[in-house]
Amino acid sequence: MTDFKGKKIVLTGASRGVGYEASKLFLAAGAEIIGTGRDAARLEKTAAELQKLGSFTPFLADFDSPAAPGALSDFVHSQWGSLDILLNNAAVQTYRADWREEGLELLNEQWRCNVFAQHELIFKLQDLLEKGTQPRVVNVSSGAGSLQALKESPDMPTYRLTKYALGGMTILWAGILKGKVAVNALDPGWLKTDLGGPEAPGEPEDGGQRMWEICSLPWDETGKFWHGNQEIEF
Q1: Which residues contact 214 (CB under 8 A, 6 or more apart)?
Q2: Which range of residues forms the domain containing residue 33?
Q3: Domain for residue 165, yes or no?
């Protein structure tokens, strides 16, 4: 898919980083976006900028909250009768050296935002996706959550484990929706975003471009992990 004109896109975490850069590309190509952010002031500022490029509707959502995925789903159903692309991009990351420094609560706290919110959004929006044109879901993961990365380093274990779980969820949803909705995972790269930090080698624009590339893959590509348009191992 390279023609995004008129495509209806839900993009979580659209007010910063990869989500913001991808939004600019899709809007310039004629897509309509419902984009979320968790900070009201930042989302308002971002929306004012993005609305100069096209149809961008902001929706305030903090996916740490159990109510957020359902509220977003209800809003999307109220606005659109179909959905072409769901970009599960929002996530949180806390760096700690290992499980001992993280303690027992962090995994429980971040599981909802990094795994369950994505699962619930797919579950609750699948009816709209099945009415879309060559619909697809992209779960934004990380190379830090690959099996090889888990074997190589125990640092930031909650983040790594949630992203590894997101990969498994991607495979399962791809099987369930095969022939109806393409479901893939994206590693946007280590980037200078709020999550990636200032020492990262890549720029947010690189991640936006890779999100564009994965959405331009042949529709029958599903259940895989991608770095842009290059397949990688889960």
Answers
A1: 138, 184, 186, 226, 228, 229
A2: 8-232
A3: yes
